[in-house]
Amino acid sequence: MFNTLPADDVRELLLSCCAAPGWAAAVTAGRPYADRAALTVAARARIGALPWPEVVDAVAAHPRIGRPPTGTGRDAEWSRREQAAATAASTTDSSGSGGSTTGGSGADVAADLTAANDAYEQRFGYRFLIFANGRGAAELVAAARQRLHHDPDTEQGVVRTELGDIAALRLGRLVDDLAGPAPLSRPAPLSSHVLDTTTGTPAAGITVRLDAADPADGWRTVATGHTDADGRLRDWVPGASWAVGTYRLVFDVADRLGADAFYTEIPVVFTVHDAARPHHVPLLLSPYGYTTYRGS
Question: Are residues 218 and 271 located together in one domain of the fold?
């Protein structure tokens, strides 16, 4: 299935494994792959060849260690699974049944993770990234502290390796999903990308609601989601709820723009004429204005 999907679909799916467009394009262009091992080797090699700024952007799409995302997309769900052990350790009190992996309270572990993240970002200027799957908080804190002693060139090599490990794990999951009893043959019917033009950064954590026009009841809510660390919404609309008709996206921007903002909620009404085509509706956001358009 991975080798035969349309290229645009594959590139979009791959971005949930590694949020580097150049990497997704290169891995897509390398098809067909003889087997999963060949795909994994190629994926790691492409990360090694990425320009460093693209690596930093891909790292920034990952949540901070110890702070899993709240989004509903595939990448957000994978991040929650990968950080499950660390999150459990940082939220379990030492008097509980599980205890803390550091021997202190959950609050102590959370504080250690926060301090380690802060120190790393101050040292290198980008987010601390590590293959966290199955690893407890104490191990992650120790790894962050140890990596603070690296020189910048050495650390960049480590970051590429960690990013490759995460991408390889997610690629395996993606291939499994595509080979399942009901494989995803098309991308999500509706996606969005919210960018804050004031700061020039993705608007993460924006609550977005999708309503469908209902002749009897006015508007009927069919999906709710949150933008991920890259400001994106993917895989959040059930296919069974998507058909030709009129829809309304409602972006809750009050918290993002603050108390002085002119807009607190932005509705975008649009009509779907061909439900077989994927639809992308980006939003460019500022305190006193916004822009939206039909994307691709």
Answer: yes
**Structure-block tokens of residue 13:** 């799916």
94 contacts 106 by C-beta, under 8 angstroms: yes
Contact in structure between 234 and 211 (CB atoms under 8 Å): no
Q: Are residues 54 and 117 in the same domain?
A: yes
* C-alpha 112 chain-centroid distance: 24
User: How far, rounded to the nearest angstrom, does the alpha carbon of residue 287 sit from its chain's CA centroid?
Assistant: 25
| Ramachandran category for residue 49: left, alpha or beta (phi over 0 → left; psi -120 to 50 → alpha) | alpha
Cis amide prior to 32 (ω within 30 degrees): yes
Q: What is this structure's pTM?
A: 0.57
Q: What is the pLDDT of residues 148-162, one digit of tens each?
A: 999 999 999 999 999
- The last residue of one of the domains, among 125, 154, 178, is 178
DSSP structural state of residue 168: H
Domain of 172 in residue numbering reads as 7-178
CA distance 281 to 231: 12
What pLDDT was estimated at residue 239? 65
Instruction: Give ∠ CA 30-233-44 in degrees, rounded to 5.
Output: 30
* Domain count across the chain: 2
The residue length of the chain stands at 296
Q: What is the spatial distance between Cα 185 and Cα 165, in angstroms, rounded to a whole number?
A: 26
Q: Are the C-beta atoms of 272 and 212 separated by less than 8 Å?
A: no
Which residue is listed with tokens 């296919």? Answer: 239
Q: Which one-letter amino acid corresponds to residue 41?
A: V
